[in-house]
Q: What sequence folds into this?
């Protein structure tokens, strides 16, 4: 039969509450008593329950990494895995437990964010993949559960954010294309209501406006970060316009850029000789497709690491709420041609 905290208390000659306080690091227990308790734990082979420990500690040690839309993601897209790697790296350095959960827009409507976290004894959560229309996003402002969102610019009431400067990154990529003498662009955008889509679109428009150029709404196609939708949209556009339309496709993800490149090839054209293509993220595949993809590099592992670090600060002190920016880089490869 498994050893319980009651067995430890009896063996050490103290109360159950004293054992619990010793395990959770309270300082009002004498060194002699604490040593006796931990000796009993060792001799009996007792293993504290991590979740139960979180319930009684002043600062719960169980944090959640909640990914929305995980099942809809492309198999070639490893961004959530890289984020998780960063979260786990910070957690292992700071004696935290991480639980991973997947959700989507429909499931968010069935169970509130606060209830979701409390049922799992989550002291705080890192959210990735949510959009501005998701139920969880609408709850964050009023929730008392500490949270860090990835790529959603919000910093209020125990809610912080970690991202690159999406506006600046997209502006810099647009300016690079303009320096290569491109003037007509087709934007392959992400989810229409995603904050990251709105920010990247704002950056593209800033870059064009700064050079006296305009981006008509008809040159923005929302493809939901889907390779298939990007492929179909690009193919339809090329078959209709040929080389009389845009000279460059600005894609808001590398996955969509891959779809566009395949569409260009399948319609009998070439990249970059006929059309230039840029991506965003710099997933490992971006370097190995042909031609290699010009893109924006963001370190998603760092996003996860700094997201966990910020969450820990907010749990310990809600005044630590802020927006943490991670550096980005424009990576020039072979998918853009100078006109």
A:
């Amino acid at each position: 039969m498994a050893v319980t905290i009651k067995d430890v208390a009896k063996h050490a000659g103290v109360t159950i509450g004293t054992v619990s306080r010793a395990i959770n690091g309270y300082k009002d227990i004498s060194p002699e008593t604490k040593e006796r308790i931990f000796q009993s734990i060792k001799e009996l082979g007792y293993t504290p329950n991590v979740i139960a420990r979180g319930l009684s500690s002043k600062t719960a040690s169980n944090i959640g990494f909640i990914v929305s839309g995980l099942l809809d993601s492309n198999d070639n897209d490893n961004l959530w895995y890289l984020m998780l790697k960063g979260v786990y790296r910070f957690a292992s350095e700071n004696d935290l437990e991480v639980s991973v959960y997947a959700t989507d827009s429909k499931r968010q409507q069935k169970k509130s964010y606060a209830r979701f976290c409390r049922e799992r004894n989550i002291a705080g959560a890192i959210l990735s993949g949510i959009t501005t229309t998701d139920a969880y996003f609408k709850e964050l402002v009023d929730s008392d559960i500490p949270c860090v969102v990835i790529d959603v610019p919000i910093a209020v009431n125990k809610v912080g954010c970690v991202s690159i400067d999406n506006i600046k990154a997209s502006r810099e990529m647009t300016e690079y294309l303009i320096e290569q003498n491109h003037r007509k662009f087709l934007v392959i955008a992400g989810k229409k209501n995603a904050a990251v889509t709105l920010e990247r679109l704002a950056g593209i428009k800033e870059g064009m406006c700064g050079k006296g150029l305009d981006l008509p709404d008809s040159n923005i196609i929302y493809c939901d970060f889907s390779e298939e939708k990007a492929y179909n949209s690009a193919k339809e556009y090329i078959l209709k316009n040929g080389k009389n339309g845009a000279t460059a496709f600005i894609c808001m993800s590398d996955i969509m850029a891959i779809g566009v490149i395949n569409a260009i090839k399948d319609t009998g054209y070439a990249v970059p000789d006929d059309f230039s293509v840029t991506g965003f993220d710099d997933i490992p595949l971006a370097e190995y497709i042909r031609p290699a993809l010009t893109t924006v590099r963001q370190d998603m592992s760092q996003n996860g690491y700094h997201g966990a670090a910020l969450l820990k600060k907010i749990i310990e002190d809600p005044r630590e709420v802020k927006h943490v920016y991670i550096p980005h880089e424009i990576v020039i490869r072979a998918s853009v041609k100078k006109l």
Q: What stands out?
A: The first strand starts at residue 62 and ends at 68. Residues 5-48 form a domain with the 434 Repressor (Amino-terminal Domain) fold (CATH 1.10.260.40).
